Amino acid sequence: MRRQVTITPLTKDAFAPFGQVLTTEGSDHFPINGGMTERYHDLADVQLAGENPRAMISIFRGQPYALPLELKMVERHPFGSQAFMPLHQRPFLVTVAPDENGIPGTPQAFITQPGVGINIGKNVWHGVLTALEAEGDFLVVDRGGGGINLEEFFFDEPYLISRKQGALNSG
Amino acid sequence: MRRQVTITPLTKDAFAPFGQVLTTEGSDHFPINGGMTERYHDLADVQLAGENPRAMISIFRGQPYALPLELKMVERHPFGSQAFMPLHQRPFLVTVAPDENGIPGTPQAFITQPGVGINIGKNVWHGVLTALEAEGDFLVVDRGGGGINLEEFFFDEPYLISRKQGALNSG
């Protein structure tokens, strides 16, 4: 029997153990620039650790994955957080897993609302960028600097990530 | 006679004295995640200086300005860069000015291509976020920490920023 994970909506509470949700919804804000701009302020805990750390801004162009998908691997970055903000209005899939004595426990899978991003905390197990439906660009804020900032873990048996419990074919 | 500035297209070369253009166009990239994602890598020089600096991620929701516009004030941030990435596909206006012995010289105004952002270097004089056409959200990466990270300069006489030289009404 294949191990299954059911996708649930991304919420701030559900994602809190893994990082932050980047959204204006329910976030602190205040007016600047004579009231012409509203600043939804300081949404992420940007973590920059290790040797000679610096913040990097990149654009990731992701090809879309089909659902259900097999999650064979997760990775983590011991020295820094990694933020993904979609530059389009399509949802994407976020997969994370708690750490259990140095290896990932059972993954959780979240689907985002359009226009919503995430910041994954340092050393949090997560799946790779998973665009859905169409190719999509994402602004990424992560950490540059010295040292090996990547650890990968391959599951003995992949997890099947799907929208509905037991739905092997409908996504 | 009012001082006028004509808007020109934003290019990497023209903007180089002031910061970086955030775009996939002509930027270094390489495949990651088994070829499913292309990483347009390290597009910005994120500067974090001063007392207890940290990187912040915020969302700015900007009301649109009409063109031509009067530029009355520019500002700069002595301790950090500030990146603006549009979360929509409309162009926006970028106004910067060289420093001349501690005060801003003649401003330059650039219009972006859709999907293109900017990173303004620390201590570079610039106008406030200037959305055009419609309200727009921007992901902003700037610097938190101690000290006064804002300096404003009000021009004795505003500049008129317009699309065409001498066009006072057509924008």
UniProtKB/TrEMBL annotation, chains A, B:
Keyword tags: Lyase, Purine metabolism
Pathway note: Nitrogen metabolism; (S)-allantoin degradation
CDD domains assigned: cupin_UAH
GO biological process per UniProt: allantoin catabolic process; purine nucleobase catabolic process
Cofactor: Ni(2+)
Gene Ontology molecular function, alphabetical: ureidoglycolate hydrolase activity; ureidoglycolate lyase activity
InterPro entries assigned: RmlC_Cupin_sf (IPR011051), UAH_cupin (IPR047233), Ureidogly_lyase (IPR007247), Ureidogly_lyase_bac (IPR023525), Ureidoglycolate_lyase_dom_sf (IPR024060)
Enzyme class: lyase
Gene3D superfamilies attached to this UniProt entry: Ureidoglycolate hydrolase
Enzyme Commission no: 4.3.2.3
Its biological purpose: Catalyzes the catabolism of the allantoin degradation intermediate (S)-ureidoglycolate, generating urea and glyoxylate. Involved in the utilization of allantoin as nitrogen source.
PANTHER family on file: UREIDOGLYCOLATE HYDROLASE, UREIDOGLYCOLATE LYASE
Family: Belongs to the ureidoglycolate lyase family.
Protein name: Ureidoglycolate lyase
Species of provenance: Pelagibacterium lentulum
